[in-house]
Structures are given as structure tokens and as C-alpha cells.
Write a structure and sequence with these properties.
It contains nine helices and seven strands; from the N terminus they run H-H-E-E-H-E-H-H-E-H-E-H-E-H-E-H. The chain is of the alpha/beta class and 227 residues long. It has one domain: Glycerol-3-phosphate (1)-acyltransferase, CATH 3.40.1130. Strands 1-7-6-2-5-3-4 form a seven-stranded mixed β-sheet, sandwiched between helices. Helix 1 runs parallel beside helix 5. The radius of gyration is 17 Å and the shape is globular. The N and C termini lie far apart (37 Å).
């Protein structure tokens, strides 16, 4: 599976480099995600898709427990017109495994070691002018703790405020990391991952912290709560 994934990721990285439009990139990203998840015998089930307005731009927020989470999000939105630029950390952007795909597939580089964020916000502005949304994992990296949700990093809501973007909370209800291990180690068929789309959070809403708003949105779902 690792060899297949490496081949597929780089093959699609080349295809994405030749793509001329966002529509082409979305189609290729969905095709890639479908191939990966189909090979793993994983089906993505989406709840609340009717809450997504295809003519709007969003700052999409998702929890993050597995390396296949971007594929899960792509498949969850495949029947919409939403195309997003992924906020990608430097380690992924220049990775031998993911680098070509990440750079060519539609992303904005986040260099956490830099104190100058002007280039980062400029890249977001430029991407949004093409009609793209912005996709981010507010936890900053994969949550490897035995919890449903890790602490959100600072700055996520600032992206929304600077660009007047409504925030679209997405919750991967199933522990995708456990499903991935089952798929690889047991070759089990008929695996399902449930994704729930929540109600839009306005960019200027500071009545509670963004993390608290997200937790409240999905509390009592798969054990997610405020504690």
C-alpha cells in the first residue's frame, strides 16, 4: 500500500502540475482521493452537505487525526463546486513523498519558523481572487493524543477576519486513524468514515473562542465534548 500510495501521489502531482484550471485540479484531487480510499475499502458518508452553498467561499475547518484526512475532506465535498487551497506546513510542502502533490494541487505554504507572515496572507488573497476557499486543520498538525480534538492553534480566525470569510466547520466523526490501521492490517472491507458539516460561523463572531464554538457545534458526537 505504501508503494502504491507513493506512486499514485507523485503521478497525480505531475498531472496537477499540468492542470490549467481550478475545476481540473478539483477533479484530479477527487480522483486521487477516490482511488486511495477505494483501495483501502473505505467509504466516506457525509451528513449536512445541504449546509454548503456552492457559490460561496469559506474558511473550512476540520479536525485532524489521520494522514488520509485531506482525502476524506475532498470526497466529502466532491459533489459541490467548492475548491480549496490547503494551508500546508513547510515539512509537507517540501516532502519527498507529498511535496509535488501539495505544491501543484493547490496550497498555501505556512512557515512556522518565520516571523514574517505577509507572504502567507498575500498568497491567501491571491488564491481567493480566483474563487478558491481556504482549507485548514486548526489543530496545526495531526492529533496523536487519545482525545477527540486537540487545542486549536492561534491565528485561524485571523485568516477569516482578514479575508471576510465565513467559517465552515467540518467534523470527521469516525476515528480515521483507527479505520486506516484496520484497512491496512486486516484488509477489512466495507469500512465507513462519517463526516458531519456544521453550521457556518461568521468570521467576526468572537462571543466564544473558535475552539469552543467548534466543540459546541459537535458536542455529543462520537464523544466530543467541552472537557
Amino acid at each position: 500500500m505504501a508503494v502504491y500510495s507513493l506512486y499514485l501521489t507523485n503521478a497525480f502531482g505531475f498531472k496537477l502540475k499540468r492542470a490549467k484550471t481550478e475545476t481540473e485540479k478539483k477533479q484530479l484531487r477527487c480522483e486521487y482521493s477516490d482511488l486511495i480510499l477505494s483501495r483501502l475499502n473505505i467509504e466516506v458518508v457525509v451528513l449536512g452537505l445541504d449546509k454548503v452553498e456552492s457559490d460561496k467561499q469559506y474558511l473550512l475547518l476540520s479536525n485532524h487525526r489521520s494522514i488520509i484526512d485531506p482525502c476524506i475532506i475532498e470526497m466529502a465535498l466532491k459533489d459541490t463546486n467548492i475548491y480549496g487551497l490547503w494551508i500546508s506546513k513547510k515539512e509537507l510542502y517540501f516532502s519527498l513523498f507529498f511535496g509535488m502533490f501539495v505544491r501543484n494541487g493547490g496550497s498555501v505554504l505556512l512557515d512556522r519558523s518565520s516571523n514574517k507572515m505577509g507572504k502567507f496572507f498575500k498568497a491567501i488573497k491571491e488564491g481567493m481572487r480566483t474563487g478558491a476557499s481556504i482549507f485548514i486543520f486548526p489543530e496545526g498538525t495531526r492529533n496523536k493524543e487519545n482525545t477527540d480534538l486537540a487545542e486549536f492553534k492561534d491565528g485561524t480566525q485571523l485568516i477569516a477576519i482578514k479575508n471576510k470569510l465565513p467559517m465552515l466547520p467540518v467534523y470527521i466523526r469516525t476515528n480515521a486513524n483507527e479505520i486506516l490501521h484496520t484497512a491496512i492490517n486486516k484488509r477489512q472491507k466495507g469500512l465507513r468514515i462519517e463526516v458531519e458539516i456544521g453550521d457556518t460561523i461568521e468570521y467576526g463572531d468572537r462571543s466564544v473562542s473558535l475552539e469552543t464554538a467548534y466543540r459546541n457545534m459537535f458536542k455529543n458526537k462520537q464523544g466530543l465534548c467541552l472537557v
